Amino acid sequence: MFQKYIRNIALAMCLFAVASLTTAFSDNSRYFELIKNIEVYAAVYQTLNEYYVDQIEPAATMRKGIESMLKSLDPYTNYITAADIESYRLEQNETMGFIGATILNYNDKMYIGDVSEDLPAFKAGLRAGDQITAINGSPIDKRTVDELKKALQGQVDTEVKITYLPNGETAPKTVSVSRTREETKAVPHFEMVDEHTGYVKLTTFMRPDCSQEVYDAIEELKSKHDLKALILDLRGNGGGLLTESVDLVNIFVPKNQLIVQMKGRVDEYNKDYSTQHEPLITDLPVAVLVNDRSASASEITAGSLQDLDRAIIVGQRSFGKGLVQQTRDIGYGNQFKLTVARYLTPSGRCVQAINYAKRYTDEGAAKVPDSLRTAFKTKGGRTVYDGSGVDPDLKVEKKSSSTLAKTLAEKHLYFDFANQYQRQHPSITEAKNFALTDTEYNDFVKFVESKNFEYPTQTETSIDKLKKMATREQYDKKVQDLIAQLSEKVKAEKKRELYTNKEEIKQQLTQEIIGRYYFQKGKVEASLSTDPEVAEAIKVCKDETRYKSILSAKK
After folding, report:
1. What proportion of the chain, given as a percentage, has pLDDT over 90?
2. Same domain, residue pair 237 and 324
3. Is residue 507, in this structure, part of any structural domain at all?
4. Model confidence, pTM
5. How far is CA 363 from CA 66, 222, 320, 373, in A?
6. For residues 554 and 382, what is the distance between their CA atoms, to the nearest angstrom?
7. Residue 478 falls inside a structural domain
8. Sequence-separated contacts (24+) of 531-534 with Cβ below 8 Å
9. Do both 170 and 48 map to the same domain?
10. Is residue 473 domain-resident?
11. Where in the sequence is the domain holding 12, given as residue range(s)?
């Protein structure tokens, strides 16, 4: 009976395939291949159920099969089961509220990692460094960060009670925090970085009014200053709403200009997006800052302004996400989020950096080789390429972070010291003028040493391997002594690294401390004077001849 049921399923799948494909394909061989493989899949499933040594769990087995199949595609195509659908809906639900704080878990304790200025957590008095101990009266022992985040979420305008230990205090406090859908500003900071150059930082395209925030910031700069050039900072901006990127570009280019196309196999996903309004500024020099974390809508903005020769792109090559996803109901409470189209900028190029359709390495999908990238032309005839994000017109090399600086961050030592610093300093000078003294940096070095901080280096790893090899091959004591001396010299050098890498560490520590007092806005403001990309952007915007030559060069 069961075998007959499985065969009926296989037949139904085949009939469904024929019905679905009849209108989609004219190639009979493709019908055959699809139907044949569906039959094979059903036969494997039937045989497992009938003959496998243990009884299989149908749902779990099928899910693994589907997920394995999807791994051969792109990482954005996902199967969402009925069991997971509630969490997915909560993430998409516009009535779901949050408190405006990030959660940090280390040393088996939960801390407020950061708060967004003017959102509920901030208004309730929560600050970075506060340790959360209970939610709605229930201790948070053994909860994961994800579980804690879910507990803090809820319907908009409902309240959650948070019990916490304020930074440096031992007496707990409990506050009621109202959940909100309101988000922190998409433009945390804007200012004039010199007499004639404005700067606007945009952190996300997720807000439906983020382009308006940029518009308002530029208008204010125009009204109060002699604005002659603009820097738009999209570094670290992971994207969001496509329409917002189109509206943002519209600030700089005329009405009815094609900005982006969606191209897929199915007509319903083919769509053109053009500017709808008159621009705010059409003649001022514009520099757009991007890096390897600028993605999606950020790349549409940067790529289209580059294609239209309306801005100079400064920084590093962007992330390279040019794929469009849609979610479809596939029955029994399950949903399927799949890639249905590609984004194309005005020149016709796609910025997608990973080619999931073609495997260039045995390990899986890889970056598209430069030799296989296709050339396109900007409005003025410059050559640009597809297949690997947006290449900057002016490349500024990104300084790699030292192993020591990375490990200090991973071990939360910047975070811990900033907590201590704030307890000792109720206030600091304004963000742009704040700087750690040498004495304060020495205090940090002592703080790190008091934590018995250790971190592995590649040199030490190699020395350990050499020790083991020398022992195994029975080299004499002289060799062993030389290896021991080398090991001691490396340890001594490591102790000096806190001073060798002082400037890099000091900069990251300063940012952590400033965030305690001035939040995201202060961090951005304080970094501008030492920012190499900003400096390069200012320089090129002030040099009219160089600016025009870059935009007119035939590459």
Report:
1. 58
2. yes
3. yes
4. 0.84
5. 20, 52, 20, 21
6. 5
7. no
8. 532/396, 533/235, 533/289, 533/291, 533/314, 533/315, 533/396, 534/193, 534/199, 534/231, 534/233, 534/289
9. no
10. no
11. 2-56
